[in-house]
Amino acid sequence: MAFFFSRVNLFIFFHLLVATPIFSESSSSSHAISTTKFLDLAKDPQLFDWMVGIRRKIHENPELGYEEFQTSELIRVELDKLGISYKYPVAVTGVIGFIGTGLPPFVALRADMDALPMQELVEWEHKSKVPGKMHACGHDAHVAMLLGAAKILKEHENEIRGTVVLVFQPAEEGGAGAKKILDAGVLENMSAIFGLHIAPTFPIGEVAARAGPIFAGSGFFEATINGRGGHAAIPQHSIDPILAASNVIVSLQHIVSREANPLDSQVLTVGKFQGGGAFNVIPDSVTIGGTFRAFSKESFMQLRHRIEQVITGQAAVQRCNATVDFLDEEKPFFPPTVNNGDLHEFFQSVAGSLIGSNKVKDLQPLMGSEDFAFYQEVFPGYFFLLGMEDASVERLELPHSPYYKVNEDALPYGAALHASLATSYLLKLHQQVPVVEGKHHDEL
Ligand SMILES: [Zn+2]
Ligand SMILES: [Zn+2]
């Protein structure tokens, strides 16, 4: 906390010292562009219809993580039409676009592209045409909004003080596409990254976020508990893995309830229990699996450590042996999503000017997770929720429901916020450079 305040003071000090007379002109002109004008541009019927068309096209053809080939192609076709250069393929299907000078500083905007393996149950004209696949998390809208922002930014390219990097990312839903994008080495030297998720729980025209942790870190585990099978009526000749697994599960529940600080929210759920197939047979083994969540990496690692200890130790009490797999390849763990404090102040100011500060709400942390967290581990990042609820029309379902719907009226807000955040942040960096030359990256 003290560190945070000291940096703010330092910035104000430098700003007062030299920035005002040098940059007042550029500041006023670019600031005006990045606030109300971007929202008006995004609400323009032509741009709005274009975004809606893109979103519906993607919605009709949902693709799962690392299979977003048609979605990726659609994005590249639109970027080509807009004259925006890009790198492809990145992380299998990812597309990284560039708008601006092509030189530092770089600020990234991210949209995820993947759908979910579930059947859409909404009957409408643009229902998913692929059985068993659906955009039930709104990533189709995220792509449309980032393309909308790209269009606005391209039209103002000569006013951009650096480079906006568009990150169309694969496989957010459990595939850790963000990590793969980072591993590809295409996001070197980013000064900041912004991302959003549309949310049916907030009214349209509002945003919600907070500084610090907003989503939990999330991991999975699977354990096999091995005993010795035999006749159910002669248990003395068997080693019963069903009973051992039952005790393991009960013991696992003690980790959060007895070992974790009650003020440090954590979850450990066993959602899978498979073993046995007959009423009168003790099986050889039982497989259990579950998920665990925490808001700090320390708590997360402690949970992981104790899960393994409790499973193997408790199984041993029942004469079984157990192996624990954290599925690092298949389901890599997501770190907690933690918003940078300085970016929070910046976001409140930019979003406040764009939509009104009374529409910028505080977000309570959620136990869900977001692979945007991977970016935040490497450079400062900020993630927020974009409201889309219109109570006068209908109540919207939560993400991952087969009845999930997107209120497309939210698209202009997302596009304008993306465009405003990127241009304003580059402007802010531009203003800082002569003052703290070569140091502004460290400052953040
Ligand atoms: Zn989702
Ligand atoms: Zn999502």
UniProtKB/TrEMBL annotation:
Signal peptide: 1-19
CDD domains in UniProt: M20_IAA_Hyd (cd08017)
Pfam families associated with the record: M20_dimer, Peptidase_M20
Domain of life: Eukaryota
Residues involved in Mn(2+) 1 binding: 173
Entry annotated with the keyword Metal-binding: yes
Keyword flag Repeat: no
GO cellular component: endoplasmic reticulum
Gene Ontology terms for molecular function: IAA-Ala conjugate hydrolase activity; metal ion binding
Sorted UniProt keywords: Hydrolase, Manganese, Metal-binding, Signal
Amino-acid positions noted as binding Mn(2+) 2 in the UniProt annotation, renumbered to this chain: 137, 139, 197, 400
Cofactor, free-text remark: The Mn(2+) ion enhances activity.
Cofactor: Mn(2+)
GO biological process: auxin metabolic process
Family annotation (InterPro entries): Amidohydrolase, Bact_exopeptidase_dim_dom, ILR1-like_Hyd, Peptidase_M20, Peptidase_M20_dimer
Every Peptidase M20 dimerisation domain range: 217-312
Sequence similarity: Belongs to the peptidase M20 family.
Protein name according to UniProt: Peptidase M20 dimerisation domain-containing protein
